[in-house]
Design a protein that fits this description.
The complex is a heterodimer of chains A (about 110) and B (about 110).
Chain A lengths: L4 E3 L2 E4 L5 E6 L6 E7 L6 E7 L2 E5 L7 E4 L6 E5 L8 E8 L5 E2 L3 E5 L1
Parallel strand pairs in A: 2-11
Antiparallel strand pairs in A: 1-3, 3-8, 4-5, 4-9, 5-6, 7-8, 9-10, 9-11
Chain B lengths: L3 E3 L2 E5 L4 E7 L4 E9 L5 E8 L4 E4 L2 E6 L4 E6 L8 E9 L8 E2 L3 E6 L1
Parallel strand pairs in B: 2-11
Antiparallel strand pairs in B: 1-3, 3-8, 4-5, 4-9, 6-7, 7-8, 9-10, 9-11
The chains are: A mainly beta (about 110), B mainly beta (about 110).
Chain lengths: ~110, ~110
């Protein structure tokens, strides 16, 4: 499978714990996006990388969120001190230029 | 997605055509997309249109773009029960602007026999 891969698919964590998600984009896609989706809503933009450079961050991305894309390949999204409001589907997408392809997402449940 | 608006629900009978509508606000949008999402899954890119086009057809799918009214539609011919899903419209600016796709809230398509 050469699509966008996200791990884990599901994560249940206790409030206050840290979690990290991984995204492996389609090979040679230089653009990578993270989105968050809650029930009944469309994907909301979190952050965007072009190669290894993080070019934009949404105001939704509080100080507890950090994302990296070392070497311009895979990316990680870390949430520190999780809160119940962080429960959502976290989606990663990659793009060569004009079309963005999404992974299956990581569903986070904070209990 | 306050910049992209869609009606929330559409119900059609199997075999009929479905038309899902979307309005966007940014006249600088260069790419407009339609994605499909099934329960618990990620988004699948169905089709997209460049802003210098007004129509694109791909098998059962027809996209119409009215740039003057900033209106995009997706027509699905011969709708099947497998087409039941949430359909998202998204816009993206081209070079010189943000490359970030902005999504609407999605239209839930229900296909009944």
């Amino acid at each position: 499978d050469t699509g966008v891969s996200q791990n884990p698919r599901h994560k249940i964590t206790k409030r206050g714990q840290n979690v990290t998600f991984r995204c492996d984009p389609i090979s040679e896609h230089n653009r990578l996006y993270w989105y968050r989706q809650t029930l009944g809503q469309g994907p909301e933009f979190l952050t965007y990388f072009q190669n290894e450079a993080q070019l934009e961050k949404s105001r939704l991305l509080s100080d507890r969120f950090s994302a990296e894309r070392p070497k311009g390949s895979f990316s990680t999204l870390e949430i520190q001190r999780t809160e119940q409001g962080d429960s959502a589907m976290y989606l990663c997408a990659s793009s060569p230029r004009d079309k963005a392809f999404f992974g299956q997402g990581t569903r986070l449940t904070v209990v | 997605g306050e910049d992209v608006e869609q009606s929330l629900f559409l119900s059609v009978r199997e075999g009929d055509s479905s038309v899902i509508n979307c309005t966007y606000t940014d006249s600088s949008s260069t790419y407009l997309y339609w994605y499909k999402q099934e329960p618990g899954a990620g988004l699948q890119l169905l089709t997209y249109i460049f802003s210098n086009m007004d129509m694109k057809q791909d098998q059962r799918l027809t996209v119409l773009l009215n740039k003057k009214d900033k209106h995009l539609s997706l027509r699905i011919a011969d709708t099947q029960t497998g087409d039941s899903a949430i359909y998202f419209c998204a816009e993206r600016l081209g070079s010189g602007g943000s490359y970030i796709p902005t999504f609407g809230r999605g239209t839930s398509l229900i296909v009944h026999p």
